[in-house]
Amino acid sequence: MSDKIAEHELKDWFNYLKNPDKIDHSLEINKISEPLIIDLHFYNLEQSVEIITKTINFAQKQQIRNLQIITGIGKNDYGDFGTLYTEIPRIIEARKKQYNIANFSRNVNNPGILNIKLKK
After folding, report:
1. Looking at residue 6, what DSSP letter applies?
2. Helices 45-61 and 83-94: crossing angle, nearest 10°?
3. pLDDT tens-digit profile of 33-88?
4. Separation between Cα atoms, residue 53 and residue 115, nearest integer Å
5. Radius of gyration of the chain (CA)
6. Which SS3 state, helix, strand or coil, does residue 35 take?
7. Sheet of 101-106: strands edge to edge?
């Protein structure tokens, strides 16, 4: 790795120092990386549904198409699965149209994660 600064970077820096108010913001990229991940651990069902709704609305505005929702498996001492694990997929299926979801499925490697693809 060289300690020398590239000519074009030096030129950009000096131009900025001369006119700091004339920054071309059109070149800035503020895109959020995909998939957008929501971790619902420690939330109850009502809170989780509200978070999912708000996140999906946000994702659509930001043109994010891929989401992952972490519900966890939540197995208890009796071997039952947790509420979020069982109920969140049912709620998503029921609201598929409202949420504008193309498809969703459990993650193959971790069944406590739902992969969601939003329509364009």
Report:
1. P
2. 50
3. 889 999 999 999 999 999 999 999 999 988 999 999 999 998 777 778 899 999 99
4. 15
5. 21
6. coil
7. 36-39, 66-70, 113-118, 101-106
